[in-house]
């Protein structure tokens, strides 16, 4: 039996697990998939292609929001307690992944904006990427 899930329930589901980075990665992969679908539909159905690009932009924006939320909790957890099982390499790799994530999300969102003709928004995302480097 199929049902429609409200936006509020989806957002609550996204933010329900603190200090987990998996959901943000899933959203970013979803954005990549939508962008690929938009490219495949570009020659056939322009309305579908546009809808996929908008969905990609939304997924990237949600991924960035989740990243900010988890990053704040990650810093709080890191400062309050240290786990004995964490090695220096794993914490360094996690820090690099967390630092690179917004750049990946902004790049994918910028590609979606460019393909949709919203060059000012794409330029803003690309400037944010360059500022972080």
Short description:
The chain is mainly alpha-helical and 133 residues long. It has 5 helices and no strands.
Q: How would you sum up this structure, described in words?
A:
The chain is an all-alpha fold and 133 residues long. The chain has one domain. It has five helices and no strands. The longest helix is centred in the middle third of the chain and has 35 residues. The chain is globular, with a radius of gyration of 17 Å.
Task: Report how far the terminal alpha carbons are from each other.
Answer: 48 Å
Low-confidence stretches: 15-19, 78-84
Binned, the helix content reads: over 70%
Gyration radius, in Å: 17 Å
User: How would you spell out the order of helices and strands?
Assistant: HHHHH
Form type: globular
Largest sheet: none
Structural class: mainly alpha
How large is the share of residues in beta strands?
A: under 5%
Overall pLDDT metric: 78
Number of strands: 0
Q: Number of folding domains?
A: 1
So how many helices?
5
